[in-house]
Amino acid sequence: MTPEQEEILRAMKTRTTYSIHADALKGYGDRTLLYGYDVNRKTWHVYLMDGEIHLHVYDHNRITITKRSDRFWLDAHKLMPNKRLYPEACDFDFLQILRGNGVQITPRTTFGGIGSNTLERFKETGFYGEL
Predict the structure, then answer these.
(1) Are 104 and 76 in contact (CB under 8 A)?
(2) How many domains, in total, are found in the chain?
(3) Domain that holds residue 78
(4) 22, 43, 80, 128 - which has most CB atoms within 10 Å?
(5) Rounded CA gap, 63 and 44, in Å?
(6) Is residue 93 part of a domain?
(7) Residue 65 domain-assigned?
């Protein structure tokens, strides 16, 4: 996501359906959709792989707190961390889908605030977070 794309998200009108289906992301390929953290400093990595939306929440020691996947999420709000997003690691198309379904987009860190280890992981795997 870029600063210009962030402004588009802010201006979007929303619905109240709150659900999202992996089919809405067909044709985009496997990738990170959203990467951020919550108030307890747990990392949130939402990604698309093999036609399913995956949520992986883990701590600093990479110990999994939550890991689940599904083709259809009834509550899209459960895909958004409650603290911050790393904007460079978030997929703009996915954020538009969330915003269009009534999800308030979490505030972001500054652009360029993502760590070098995370960027290296992306270069090696195509994903920003742990799978």
Answers:
(1) no
(2) 1
(3) 3-111
(4) 128
(5) 12
(6) yes
(7) yes
C-alpha pair distances (Å), 64 with each of 26, 58, 113, 130: 27, 4, 23, 10
3 state DSSP class of 15:
coil
Q: What is the DSSP letter of 47?
A: E
**Helix, strand, coil fractions of the chain, as percent rounded to 5:** 30, 25, 45
Beta strands of the chain (E only): which ranges? 20-21, 31-37, 43-49, 52-58, 64-70, 72-73, 84-85
11-67 residue pLDDT tens = 776 666 667 888 888 777 899 999 999 999 999 999 998 888 899 999 988 888 888
For the chain, what's the residue count?
Answer: 131
The one-letter code for the residue type at 48 is: L
With contact defined as beta carbons under 8 Å apart, do 73 and 85 qualify? no
Q: What is the pTM of this model?
A: 0.80
Strand partners, 53: 48, 70
